[in-house]
Amino acid sequence: MSTQRRHWISAPRFSPLLGVMIGAVGGAAYWLAAQLWPTNIAVILSMLATEVMQGGVNGNAVAQQPSDENTGADRTPALGTFVFVFALLLKYSTLMALSAASLPFPVPTNVALGLIMICGHGARRALAVSLIASPDRGSPAPISSGDLALALCLGFAPSALLGIPGLIGLAIAVIARFAFGSYLKHNRKAIARGTSYATQQLTEVCFYLAALASWRFV
Fold it and tell me: Cα–Cα–Cα angle for 157, 162, 167, nearest 5°?
């Protein structure tokens, strides 16, 4: 991959756009799979598509960062695996429920969930950028206020399309981001390399859960 492309992918201000693209790929995978199989299979395939995309993007970004041996990170693989599996199961169940959600505007069949995933992935990457930009994190590549503001605008804007559920989901995701940031501030042994991904998983799941909970009242 060229140096210019690596720089574009790793630029914090564009990270939410990548989230939107990843969500769109997941939505497309869901729509295609739903033409052939039941909803549960379509949701699993959409999650697989987003994780593959996410892994590819994160792999390019991590390649430019110091290794765990140099950062002194403390690994907890057993706990990390449990949390990861739990998050995936929770996300799957929430997306299954959201597949029947009605948007404030008409959309073709099996498209609504894709739009919800775009909102979730855009928000999660914007919130991850805000965590990296935090002075407490001591980022080796400081993020300017302008870049942070642009990242937040790009990541948060899609949620407005969902109306009240999207805004409530975004609000809860933001609260989860600050709660996790506070935890990291008081737990210096947190895995340096996995912090961004953990933040993204947490905020995305919280976004879906809050949106789902509020949908019944609108």
Answer: 65
